[in-house]
Amino acid sequence: MVPDIGRGSRTHGLLVYLYGPGRREEHTDAHLVGSWDGFAPDPGRDTGLDPDPKVTLARLTAALDLRVKQAGDRAPAKHVWHCSVRTAPGDRRLDDEEWNAVAQHIVHATGIAPAGDSDGCRWIAVRHAEDHIHIVATLVRGDLRNPRLNYDFNKAQAECRRIEKEMGLRRLNAGDGTAAKNPSSAEKFKAERTGRPETSRETLREAVRRAVAGADSEEEFFTRLREAGVRVKLRHAPSGDALGYNVALPGDRNRDGDPVWYPGSKLAPDLSLPKIQLRLTDEAAEPSAPAVGADRTNWSPPARQRRNATLIAERSATLLERDEDGEAAPQLVGVGELLDAVAQTSPATTRTELAAAARAFERATRSHVRAERADTRALRSAARGIVQAGGALGRGEDGGTTAMLVSTLVLVTLAASRWHSARGHAQQAHASRQAAAHLRTAYRQAAATPMRTLHDQGRALPDAQRLMHEATLRAVLPENVVRAGGTEARTDALVATLAQAERAGHDSEALLRQAIDMRELDSADDVNDVLVWRLRRIAQLPAHPGAASRRPTDGTSNPKASANRTSTRTTPTTGVRPVAPTPRNRPPRR
To answer: Measured between alpha carbons, how far is 186 from 78 in angstroms, rounded to an integer?
Structure first.
């Protein structure tokens, strides 16, 4: 059950809308299901007293506004309190008596009309659809004082959770006050009227998030916003320092023809300028990035940066699993920036799903857990490198490293979900799982070609060589891992990767053990795929195996020789040093 509260100044105008046909003729059988005294006139029902509904509507308006008129100048300018309450999809249909009970619970909990208070505000509940009602109240009490409505939205939310339990409705996740503000009904109707796929608030929120991803200074942040086509207005202190900022979409104007400005803090709690400045002025030591082999100069900048970001994302998953608030909380913020950076530079084939993942995970980046050590420098450096490297292609090494990184990000978001669940953060845990679902779809899109090539290469290996690597898999991996979920999962891609690692001079068994020991595999959707990408990154193998397929296959490989090789070349670099960035490309315009 979802409440949505707003304020206004025109009682009659709101009632005309509620009893009217609606913007798309969606209002049917509008009528009262409850009122402050149970005897309010109902324009939706012919009582025989007023045959003309317009007359009844005027009488209802006058009854609601009676105390507002009596209070005169003491009445608040926005004296109309409006709360819509909607059941969740799939809930049973409530009858009028049940909706009346819901309305009475809400006006009591919020302080509009506490039970037993004869001086409570006047209110009505209108129903014009099966799944929701509208509660309208005027904010002057019988003693002509204003009601105390502090935290009315939070109180309505809490009451809805109790109503869901009492009435056997779907239990929605409780919020904690850290969510971004939802678009209002007016904003949604305006987007619909102007043909926009989403509201200006949502478009601007995503634009600001993308602009801050990996930005190194306020100047760069505001430059990125302007380059993305967003109007920016700054508020300055007498000293000249920026105090805040407002953003607007070109062409989005109010009824007076002025731009519709949104302060950053109204887009999301962590998008205010002071919060952004904290990210930009993080004094944590500059990380060192994993060095890409000197013989890999043919890899493009996007491919290099995605490969580097994969190691940093792996480290974040490990920190989230340690269950330490001070270390884990800042990782969530950094992962959010990394997702935004990948989404805005991703190939067209994966862009939609990656953007959806970044948007979903945005909710998971905020909670009441405060970071003791806000060390997000490694993740922000990875995000910055990805943005500066520019757009990645959907093929070749670019496409392969996109699959490599997205595969790791799936595990990171699942680790975030477990971390939030352990702390009772229901909405954030759900958002993390949503992000993981979108990332899994993006992974399947990105990995289709390289994994198909690897499967072909594995099947093309000489029998002796293939059997040798399959024996290594059986010796190192448990049976339930080799045959993920009990299915006949083929290991051709994993076998091909082990064979290529051996040709590059690695001990395949030692390399495989190192990949397994990096972190847990229980949350992996496909263990074989996860190990393929870990192995290829550790061994510095191309993420797209097309080049490897052109190398001659040595069918006389000596298993004993490979067993005697040391695994010193497979030891991962512990530091994180960013690769020298290329000139930054402009972020794509929305």
So the answer is: 16
How would you class 59 by CB atoms within 10 Å of its CB: exposed for 0-12, middle for 13-18, buried for 19 or more?
middle
Each residue's pLDDT tens digit, 35-57: 999 999 999 876 655 667 889 99
CB atoms within 10 A of CB 569: 16
DSSP string, 323-380: T-HHHHHHHHHHHHHHHHHHHHTS-HHHHHHHHHHHHHHGGGG--SPPPSS---HHHH
Under DSSP, the state recorded for 142 is T
Give me the residues paired with residue 236 across strands: 242
Burial 356-376 (b: 16+ CB within 10 A, else e): bbbbbbbbbbbbebebeebbb
Q: What is the DSSP letter of 253?
A: B
Would 465 be classed as within a structural domain? yes
| 276 lies in the same domain as 299 | no
Q: Which residue has the higher pLDDT, 78 or 583?
A: 78
The reply to whether 444 falls in a domain is yes
Task: Say how many C-beta atoms besides its own lie within 10 A of residue 25's C-beta.
Answer: 8
Residue 90 DSSP code:
T
- In this prediction, residues 518-526 reach a mean pLDDT of 78
Indicate whether 138 and 241 sit together in one domain: no
**Residues β-bridged to residue 125:** 34, 135
**Residue whose token pair is 């009315």:** 152
Pull the structure tokens for residue 183: 């678009």
Same domain, 484 and 368: yes
Task: For residue 241, give the amino acid letter.
Answer: D
Confidence of residue 291 (pLDDT cuts 50, 70, 90): very low
CA distance 457 to 549: 7
pLDDT at 582 over 50: no
- % helix, strand, coil for the chain, step of 5: 55, 10, 40
Give pLDDT, residue 394.
86
| The total number of structural domains that make up the chain | 3
Q: Which of 228, 256, 280 is the last residue of a domain?
A: 280
pLDDT at 495: 93
- Inside any domain, residue 588: no
Instruction: Say yes or no: 158 and 209 in one domain.
Output: no
Tokens of 185: 């009904």
Residue 142 sits in a domain of what CATH number? Answer: 3.30.930
pTM over 0.90: no
Q: What's the pLDDT at 375?
A: 60
Give yes or no: residues 17 and 110 share one domain. yes
Over residues 385-395, the pLDDT tens digits come to 999 999 999 88
Question: Mean pLDDT, the chain, as a whole number?
Answer: 84
CA dist., res. 489 & res. 486, Å (int): 8
- Residues 6 or more apart in contact with residue 233 via CB below 8 angstroms: 245, 246, 247, 248, 261
Query: What are the backbone angles phi and psi of residue 2, rounded to the nearest 5°?
Result: -120, 120
Asked if the model's pLDDT at residue 59 lies above 90, the reply is yes
Position 165, amino acid:
K
Q: Does residue 384 contact residue 337 with C-beta atoms inside 8 Å?
A: no
Q: Provide the residue range defining the domain that includes 325.
A: 294-570
Query: DSSP for 257-298?
Result: S-B--EEHHHH-GGGSHHHHHHHHT--PPPP-PPPPPGGGTT
Residues 160, 79 share a domain = yes
Q: What is the CA radius of gyration of the chain?
A: 30
Distance (Å, rounded) from C-alpha 374 to C-alpha 366? 13
Whether residues 198 and 147 fall in one domain: no
